Amino acid sequence: MCLLCFSVVLFECILSGIMSVKGKKVLHMDRNSYYGAESASITPLEDLYKRFSLPGKPPESMGRGRDWSVDLIPKFLMANGRKAIWHSRYNTECLFSSRLYPGQLVRMLLITQVTRYLDFKVIEGSFVYKKGAIYKVPVTETEALASSLMGIFEKRRFRNFLIFVANYDLNDPKTMEGVDPNKSTMRDLYKKFSLGQDVMDFTGHALALYRTDDYLDQPCINTINRIKLYSESLARYGKSPYLYPLYGLGELPQGFARLSAIYGGTYMLNKPIEEIVMENGKVVGVKSEGEIARCKQLICDPSYIMDRVSKVGQVVRIICVMSHPIKNTGDVNSCQIIIPQIQVNRKHDIYVCMISSAHNVAAQGKYVAIASSVVETNDPEKELKPALDLLEPIEQKFVSISDQYAPTDMGKDSQIFISRTYDATTHFETTCDDIKDIYERAMGTEFDFAEMERTKNDIFGDAGDQ
């Protein structure tokens, strides 16, 4: 085998699919008996209780256990677009755009045609937290003027800012209004429109989806593009810029695993890893159950090779089961809420995502909300209190605290390429940045979306889809 991947988590599944399309021979091994590893969707509900060591069985009020499929890592897909593409398999209009710059994971799904194996639903709302209350994220001129998030004068200034961002075109100097995309910082741009701290907070964290305020002193073009992505996605779907796969995120690694299999990739679940075999400081194989699988390169998550990673923090996540939607959201059956760090005197934002029976992940009338953030104190659960207060009453909580790791070995000599641990965000953009980084380190070339594209014969010649 030329390439060997550990852990059928989304990182490795996407990379194995991409590498297979490029003609690499791929063997994918996982110590678990299911796809997804830490990005799995746990079903039935009884298994979730066991995973979190809760005594007894779920109460009858939770409905049938097999109706539940609960994500361990909450994430939404950032979409994009004004033009839909026709889904030939189902004779329906696909939810995705064919424009050049959608969210990165959506683009990967589109080009590889993994969308053929999945169905998606639009998330119904996107909200931001301010002084104990939540507000719809205003992203259009009309919403800016109507939003109670800002005072009357700030509404007009923010409206002008949105118009500027929407019209900004690198090929048309007239739209730039003296703003240099590479020299003017985002702080400069906010100052140009006299926007206050509260507006800066929800713009940077709820629209541009930055995790810290470091972006303020970076070139403004990056933030402009992020806001454009958000607003164009919202314009396409009307409710929010986010998508979510029916039956849970565990469907995503399975889709990319199938792509790899179509191109000759081999998958082995429930395979314990006994030893990583090295020769002269370079990986040459992996030993499992007494046998050695030979490889030239190895891709894995940090849990398989702890002596080549360092701990960089912790993430706290609390899965909450409820019998009601979140208050003050208009009773939507799905949404994201971002609590900017400054609103709760923290260094990191708090994220909340909610899905429901409408997404085939919970029993009828039930809702699943997951709150997450970077751990800052010795009482992680208490850190999420602002989010949990929004969710009350809560029927059942599942609390997890996960260590975050980053590779110390970049793989140049060892040819071992290690992913980073999932962060606290509720979108996949940072995950895709890591996927591209691993690809570039392993392949020695820049990540090119076009090279992932399947040919028509590949797509329609898949016997399993006839």
Automatic annotation (TrEMBL):
GO cellular component: Golgi apparatus; membrane
Annotated transmembrane regions: none
GO biological process per UniProt: protein transport; small GTPase-mediated signal transduction; vesicle-mediated transport
Keywords (A to Z) from UniProt: Acetylation, Cytoplasm, Golgi apparatus, GTPase activation, Membrane, Phosphoprotein, Signal
Annotated source species: Salmo trutta
Function: GDP-dissociation inhibitor preventing the GDP to GTP exchange of most Rab proteins. By keeping these small GTPases in their inactive GDP-bound form regulates intracellular membrane trafficking. Negatively regulates protein transport to the cilium and ciliogenesis through the inhibition of RAB8A.
Single GO MF annotation: Rab GDP-dissociation inhibitor activity
Compartmental location: Cytoplasm; Golgi apparatus, trans-Golgi network; Membrane
Subunit annotation: Interacts with RHOH. Interacts with the GDP-bound inactive forms of RAB3A, RAB3B, RAB3C, RAB5A, RAB5B, RAB5C, RAB8A, RAB8B, RAB10, RAB12, RAB35, and RAB43; binds RAB3D to a lesser extent. Interacts with DZIP1; this interaction negatively regulates the interaction of GDI2 with GDP-bound RAB8A.
Annotated InterPro entries: FAD/NAD-bd_sf, GDP_dissociation_inhibitor, RabGDI
Chief place where the protein resides: cytoplasm
Descriptive protein name: Rab GDP dissociation inhibitor
Pfam families: GDI
Membrane topology value: Peripheral membrane protein
Residues forming coiled coils: none
